[in-house]
């Protein structure tokens, strides 16, 4: 006799309470950052801390964008350019490479895939000096090309797309398309891409967030330039003998807004991609 299929158990009050508390703990730093960004200097020293937004948000933003030695507006534009280009490149090249490793048979594929995975174990800090020398030989240090080029393809992206394509694109479907005369690029475009859209959404959002938040390499390669990326500009706001934290947090809040927008747009796709990956694995 066949057993009953498992049914979803409705969440209880304790579950909702735990989730609500977790959300409050996670969201409070962002909210408090906004509170200080809208207040004057005295709000930071209040005990208990201020929890009600003030009325100086626009004035604080005007100070941030008018600073002559930070160029905050240009840094936001640079971050948008870098993050968009890197994300588009990662989605294209990593999905191509993942498709090749997952569905094409060629000599040395397993060894190459192992080499790609092994690169994930190497800390990025170990390659900073060599990367700086290479970019200097190319004449790219001090330009956005030096920030964009190292992130055009990522080992994590290749591995992630390979694992997703293995489970999402049946071998029989690929072979039948070859019998019908479809080229490799046609199979990739017409069969693989529609099946991996959730994974592309997850990888795209993770890549955009990681690129936007990158601080170490842009700080090194763009050192001495007037137009850094947003994270470097926020760091410049916090430099000096006297730090005006309402400026720093106002700039940090504005630099966080694009990430919140991306999360709002792609949040459902992320959940879908994670759930599909969990069910198929």
Automatic annotation (TrEMBL):
PROSITE patterns: ABC_TM1. Belongs to the binding-protein-dependent transport system permease family. InterPro entries: MetI-like, MetI-like_sf. It comes from Micromonospora humida. This is Carbohydrate ABC transporter permease. Keywords: Cell membrane, Membrane, Transmembrane, Transmembrane helix, Transport. Residues 76-266 form the ABC transmembrane type-1 domain. It is found in: Cell membrane. The chain crosses the membrane at residues 12-34, 70-99, 111-134, 140-160, 195-212, 244-265. It comes from the Bacteria. Pfam families: BPD_transp_1. CDD domains: TM_PBP2. Its main location: membrane. It is a multi-pass membrane protein.
């Amino acid at each position: 006799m066949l057993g009953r299929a498992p049914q979803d158990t409705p969440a209880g009050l304790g579950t909702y309470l735990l989730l609500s508390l977790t959300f409050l703990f996670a969201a409070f730093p962002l909210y408090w950052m906004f509170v200080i960004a809208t207040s004057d200097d005295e709000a930071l020293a209040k005990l208990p801390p201020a929890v009600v937004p003030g009325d100086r948000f626009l004035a604080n933003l005007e100070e941030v964008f008018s600073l002559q030695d930070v160029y905050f507006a240009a840094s936001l534009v640079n971050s948008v350019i870098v993050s968009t280009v890197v994300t588009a490149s990662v989605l294209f090249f990593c999905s191509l490479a993942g498709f090749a490793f997952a569905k094409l048979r060629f000599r040395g594929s397993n060894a190459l895939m192992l080499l790609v995975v092994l690169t994930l174990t190497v800390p990025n800090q170990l390659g900073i000096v060599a990367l700086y020398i290479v970019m200097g030989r190319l004449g790219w240090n001090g330009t956005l090309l030096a920030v964009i080029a190292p992130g055009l393809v990522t080992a994590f992206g290749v591995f992630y797309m390979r694992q997703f394509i293995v489970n999402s694109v049946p071998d029989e479907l690929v072979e039948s398309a070859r019998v019908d005369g479809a080229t490799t690029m046609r199979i990739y475009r017409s069969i693989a891409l529609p099946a991996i859209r959730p994974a592309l959404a997850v990888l795209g959002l993770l890549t955009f967030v990681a690129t936007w938040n990158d601080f170490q390499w842009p700080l090194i390669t763009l050192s001495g330039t007037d137009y850094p990326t947003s994270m470097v500009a926020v760091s410049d706001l916090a430099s000096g003998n006297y730090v005006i934290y309402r400026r720093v947090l106002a700039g940090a809040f504005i630099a966080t807004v694009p990430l919140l927008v991306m999360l709002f747009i792609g949040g459902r796709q992320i959940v879908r991609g994670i759930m599909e990956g969990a069910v198929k694995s």
